[in-house]
Specification:
The chain has 392 residues and is of the alpha/beta class. It is built from ten helices and 20 strands. The strands form four sheets. Strands 6-7-5-15-16-17-14-18 form an eight-stranded mixed β-sheet. It has a six-stranded mixed β-sheet with strand order 9-3-2-13-20-19, sandwiched between helices. A four-stranded mixed β-sheet has the order 1-12-11-10, with no helix packed on it. The longest helix has 17 residues. The chain starts with a strand and ends in a 25-residue tail after the last helix.
Length: 392
């Protein structure tokens, strides 16, 4: 017998963004069904580092979203039991420059961020070692970002889903969406899955790297592409790295549109003890092949920042795919081309940090309220009606 559910909104994708959309929609009083073909946090979320960052974002729409999200994450962690259950760590970030020229550029970048509301504190070379005693000698200086934080991403997504379910939201994992249900006029009226239909006047596309495929089911183009990244995980250690620490060129790599391999050192300790080492970026489709050259480049970059890591064992490496859009802004908001279709995908490597703000804004759209941020830069129909040229 075919299953049939009815609700106010179907959220497709049970990663961090989808979990946040389900939670804030449920808190707005809507009946929610969260559906995913795999488990909770089974995609990009489960292979991420859990960063909640403002430090790597230049002034503009994404930084505004990051500041909103940071505030909402902090509010969530004050709720009973949430902070400990998601391993929230308000450790702050340290961006370091290896040369005077790099430090000048970093200082200018931070100045613009401060004008936009970011707490960005210049740190002289000798003061860096008060923040990070094990940092390599010879660094020119840096900037300290106390607003940067981290969660354990799989735990955090599961916790947001648990909170949503406590408000009546339903979770359906192992349900693959195969089609969108449409009215004769073309408006969305739900989804068809391999387990049955879910009828609703709104569908939220929180499908991450597969957001383009879900959009295609609605007959519209959304040029989401996977951007592969590796992370190295060391053996458990005492707290040798106190903050998220990265080289200033990481910001340029994040903003780059190149499909070629890029690596820049990013090192951070975790509450559980292992040190996480990134970051690499390349567009190679959904190729999950292990790449020894990439991992070697990550290890080399990390030991340049923290020489003690040369004597530390790497226990494993894992790979994930960031949902990349050409202008580096996520697609958030209603799709004017398909009434009832709302997008919340394409956050690239920032989805964990931006999830709460995204979910909050999507809930405001669903309620018919004026969003707290201007959604114009994020609207999905800003892209031309042509599919991406690269194979996904």
């Amino acid at each position: 017998m075919t299953k049939r559910l009815t609700c106010d909104v179907v959220v497709v994708g049970a990663g961090m963004v989808g979990a946040a959309c389900a939670l804030y929609a449920a808190r707005a009083g809507l009946r929610v069904v969260l559906v995913d073909r795999g488990p909770v946090a089974g995609g990009t979320t489960g292979s991420g580092e859990g960063n909640i960052l403002v430090s790597d974002k230049e002034p503009g729409p994404e930084l505004e979203l990051a500041l909103l999200s940071s505030r909402l994450w902090t509010e969530l962690t004050t709720e009973p039991g949430v902070g400990a259950n998601i391993e929230f760590d308000a450790k702050g970030g340290v961006v370091v420059a290896s040369s005077g020229e790099g430090l000048a550029a970093l200082g200018e970048f931070a100045s613009g961020q401060r004008e936009a509301g970011v707490d960005a504190r210049a740190v002289a070379a000798d003061e860096l070692y008060d923040l990070e005693p094990n940092l390599a000698p010879g660094t020119a200086g840096g900037v300290f970002y106390p607003q940067d934080a981290q969660v354990m991403p799989s735990l955090a997504a599961a916790q947001l889903v648990r909170l949503a379910r406590g408000l009546g939201a339903e979770l359906r994992t192992g349900w693959a969406v195969t089609a969108l249900l449409r009215t004769a006029g073309g408006a969305v009226r739900g989804v068809r899955t391999d387990q049955g239909e879910i009828q609703a006047p709104y569908v939220v596309n929180a499908a991450g790297t597969w957001g383009g495929e879900l959009a295609a089911l609605a007959g519209v183009a959304l040029p989401v592409l996977p951007r592969r990244g590796f992370v190295l995980v060391t053996e458990p250690l005492p707290r040798m790295v106190r903050h998220k620490v990265y080289a200033a060129d990481y910001v340029a790599d994040v903003a780059s549109g190149s499909a070629a391999l890029q690596t820049s050192p990013v090192v951070e300790g975790t509450a559980a003890g292992p040190v996480l080492i990134g970051a690499s970026r390349e567009r190679v489709g959904f190729d999950r092949s292990f790449s020894l050259p990439v991992v070697r480049a990550l290890a080399a970059g990390a030991t340049r920042l923290f020489p003690f890591l040369a004597d530390v064992r790497a226990m494993r490496a894992y790979v994930g795919f960031r949902p990349y859009l050409p202008d580096h802004l996520p697609a958030i908001g209603p799709d004017a081309r398909v009434p009832g279709m709302i997008h919340a995908c394409g956050h690239e490597g920032a989805g964990i940090g931006l999830a709460t703000g995204t979910g909050h804004l999507i809930a405001q759209v669903l309620r018919g309220a004026t969003p707290d941020l201007d959604l114009t830069p994020f609207l999905p129909d800003r892209f031309a009606e042509s599919p991406p040229k690269e194979a996904q």
